[in-house]
UniProtKB/TrEMBL annotation:
Keywords: ATP-binding, Ligase, Nucleotide-binding, Purine biosynthesis
EC number: 6.3.2.6
GO cellular component: cytosol
Family indicated by similarity: Belongs to the SAICAR synthetase family.
Source superkingdom: Bacteria
This protein's pathway: Purine metabolism; IMP biosynthesis via de novo pathway; 5-amino-1-(5-phospho-D-ribosyl)imidazole-4-carboxamide from 5-amino-1-(5-phospho-D-ribosyl)imidazole-4-carboxylate: step 1/2
Protein name from the UniProt record: Phosphoribosylaminoimidazole-succinocarboxamide synthase
Gene: purC
Molecular function GO terms recorded: ATP binding; phosphoribosylaminoimidazolesuccinocarboxamide synthase activity
Organism: Candidatus Fukatsuia symbiotica
DNA-binding recorded as keyword: no
Stored Gene3D superfamilies: ATP-grasp fold, B domain (3.30.470.20), Phosphorylase Kinase, domain 1 (3.30.200.20)
InterPro entries: SAICAR_synt/ADE2_N (IPR028923), SAICAR_synt_PurC (IPR033934), SAICAR_synth (IPR001636), SAICAR_synthetase (IPR050089), SAICAR_synthetase_CS (IPR018236)
Length: 237
């Protein structure tokens, strides 16, 4: 499937149209951003690692009956996906306190959260993705009540499936962000699942193995992503 026009260039991925109006190509770039895109660096191999990581995770989720937009891995940096009508609200599941939750509530990093928290953020770079809640989503018409319920249900199911997958490989799935869209009226998981959009700690020493290595200048960012990929069984080469 050939890439045609560039439709959208995000912070880490570029979206292209194809000859089929229902299909898109996502290109994973090496760009790595933090602080709402104010800091951007190129990390060699990142596009390839995240593309293959994402395909691996989405395939696992599909086998567990989570609908995803993935059709086929096209190349090291490209994947063919269904074109979704994206919902402008990000879903975050938190199993442990970290990141913005720690800053907002002054909690100790690593505090176990049972049951896991479900947060919603509006996708809006200019407003720094503000936190919102269900009634905002309904009142402002970002998503219907029924679709939001489905997003929540799917997010918790993803947490069960991936929490186990990472636990079996020796990692704690601390938190993660999901984005959904609509395809023929159905809520479908879109965007990506990679160490850019989740927190993973090594169970042995609580080492950060995700984008916090970049955010906090801990070094060896892609080496950590590759280590996670290797331990969960993603084939990179
Ligand atoms: O920043 P915060 O602690 O709320 O992030 C929670 C989780 O969601 C983290 O795993 C982070 O990487 C992810 N996230 C993301 N994209 C955003 C905001 C958060 O991938 N725009």
């Amino acid at each position: 499937m050939q890439k045609l026009a560039e439709l959208y260039r995000g912070k880490a991925k570029t979206v292209y149209s194809t000859e089929n109006p229902d299909l898109l190509v996502l290109e994973f770039r090496n760009d790595t951003s933090a602080m709402d895109g104010q800091r951007i660096e190129q990390l060699a191999r990142k596009g390839m690692v995240n593309n293959k990581f994402n395909c691996f995770i989405m395939d696992k989720l599909e086998t567990k009956k989570i609908p995803t937009q993935i059709k086929k891995l096209l190349s090291d940096n490209e994947v063919l996906v269904k074109k979704l009508d994206m919902i402008p609200v990000e879903c975050v599941i938190r199993n442990r306190a970290a990141g913005s939750l720690v800053r907002r509530l002054g909690l100790e990093e690593g505090l176990e959260l049972k049951p896991a928290l479900f947060d919603l953020f509006l996708k809006n770079d200019a407003m720094h993705d503000p936190m919102v809640n269900e009634s905002y989503c309904i009142t402002f018409g970002w998503v219907s009540k029924e679709h939001l319920e489905r997003m929540k249900e799917l997010s918790y199911r993803v947490n069960d499936i991936l929490g186990k997958l990472f636990d079996d490989a020796g990692f704690i799935l601390v938190d993660f962000k999901l984005e959904f869209g609509l395809f023929e009226g159905e809520v479908v998981l879109g965007d990506e699942f990679s160490p850019d959009g989740c927190r993973l700690w090594d169970k042995k020493n609580l080492a950060k193995m995700d984008k916090d290595r970049f955010r906090q200048n801990l070094g060896n960012v892609i080496e950590a992503y590759e280590e996670v990929a290797r331990r969960i069984g993603v084939k990179l080469d």
